Each structure stands twice: as C-alpha cells, then as structure tokens.
C-alpha cells in the first residue's frame, strides 16, 4: 500500500472520529472498516473488538468497541457500539457485552443491524448480569429457545437479582415465551426476595396467571 493510500485512510480515521464525536457514546453507528487498521487491539470476543487509539496520535484519544460484520457479508463497514475517552469506561462496557452480544447476534441474525444492536446494547448496559437466555426471553424470541447455546443457560439466575429467564419472561408478560419455558425450567427457583415464578405471575396479566397456575396443577 502506498504512503498516499495510508494518508487517505489515516485522514478517514480522523474524520470518522470527528463525526462520531457528535453522537452519544452509546449510540450504535455504522463505520468504515478500513480505518480500524490503524488502531491497537486491547481485547477481542469473537467479532467484537475493543480498540485503543493509534500510537503517537495527536487526535483526541478514543477507545472504541466495534462489532465486525459476519464473514459472509461485505466487510467494508462495521458497527461502532461504544466510544469513550476513558480506557476503564470502555473496558467496563466491553465486559458488559462480552460472551453475550457477539454470541446473541450470531444466533439471532435479525439483530445484526444498527436498530437491533442498539436495542441489544442498551439492555445489556442496563442488565450486564443477564445471560443469553435472559436476552432471548426478554425479546420474546421463542423460536430460539431450543438452540444449544440458549438451552445451556435455561435455569441460569442472574447474579444481581437471582432472576431466572422464566421469571423474566413472566415479568415482561411474554406469554408465548412463558409457555415455551415452563416445561424446560425449574419451577421451584426463588429470586433474591424469595419470589417464585408464581409470585411473578401474580403481578402480571390474567393470561400469564392462567398459564402459570395450570402448570402448577400438573406438578
């Protein structure tokens, strides 16, 4: 690659960061992938990468979390998930996304776009203790329950509230998800406040109550 080409890419990197500064740090934006070659890689989780600014850069330092497109698609653009001048803040956000966001979009392909990634980033930022199964339950994606990676965490309770995916589905009044999860999950699980799935159901809709207590009469 010629020095002129390198200069064009470097200029593109600076312009891209300048334009990105106008957006909130947590706004998902589509960026050109070619500018990423100048950045240092601090961490990687599958297609998600935490980048540091280039060596000896005079530009304002920006640490950035980027999700690359699947290899089956055009790799000319990627998705910038988060940007910060703080290394620690960027690492904390990367850890909130790690092991879940890249895995989730590899399974649920319809979220591999700006709108879907924004929803996913926002909910993981608010609930970094959720498993991939919590995400599937929250978004009411019944068709993905049988996926092996989702089944792996079917009874996993998040470490903040000790809430299971089934309890979350009930809380969200996702009726079809509740129906799908009930035959698969432990009904006796209690959260941090000793609430069972039936306590959760009592605070939702009549339909959820009917589904929950019908199951209770069978056990």
From TrEMBL:
For whether the record's keyword set contains Hydrolase, the answer is yes
So which domain of life are we looking at?
Answer: Eukaryota
The UniProt keyword set, sorted, is: Hydrolase
* BP GO terms, sorted: positive regulation of ceramide biosynthetic process
- State the GO CC annotations: mitochondrion
User: Lipoprotein: present as a keyword of the record?
Assistant: no
Output the Gene Ontology terms for molecular function: calcium-independent phospholipase A2 activity; long-chain fatty acyl-CoA hydrolase activity
Q: Under what name is this protein listed?
A: Uncharacterized protein
Q: Which Gene3D superfamilies match?
A: Ankyrin repeat-containing domain
């Amino acid at each position: 690659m010629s020095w002129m080409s390198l200069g064009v890419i470097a200029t593109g990197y600076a312009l891209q960061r300048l334009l990105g500064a106008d957006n909130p740090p947590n706004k998902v934006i589509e960026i050109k992938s070619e500018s990423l070659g100048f950045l240092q890689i601090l961490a990687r989780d599958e297609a998600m990468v935490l980048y540091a600014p280039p060596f000896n850069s005079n530009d304002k330092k920006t640490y950035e979390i980027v999700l690359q497109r699947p290899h089956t698609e055009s790799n000319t653009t990627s998705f910038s998930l988060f940007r910060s001048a703080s290394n620690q803040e960027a690492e904390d956000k990367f850890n909130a996304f790690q092991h879940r966001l890249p895995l989730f979009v590899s399974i649920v392909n319809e979220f591999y776009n700006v709108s879907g990634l924004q929803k996913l980033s926002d909910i993981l930022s608010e609930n970094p203790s959720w498993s991939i199964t919590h995400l599937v339950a929250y978004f009411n994606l019944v068709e993905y329950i049988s996926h092996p990676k989702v089944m792996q965490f079917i009874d996993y309770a998040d470490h903040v509230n000790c809430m299971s995916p089934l309890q979350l589905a009930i809380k969200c009044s996702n009726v079809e998800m509740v129906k799908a999860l009930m035959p698969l999950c432990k009904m006796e699980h209690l959260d941090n406040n000793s609430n069972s799935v039936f306590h959760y159901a009592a605070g939702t809709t009549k339909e959820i109550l009917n589904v929950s207590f019908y199951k209770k009469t069978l056990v």
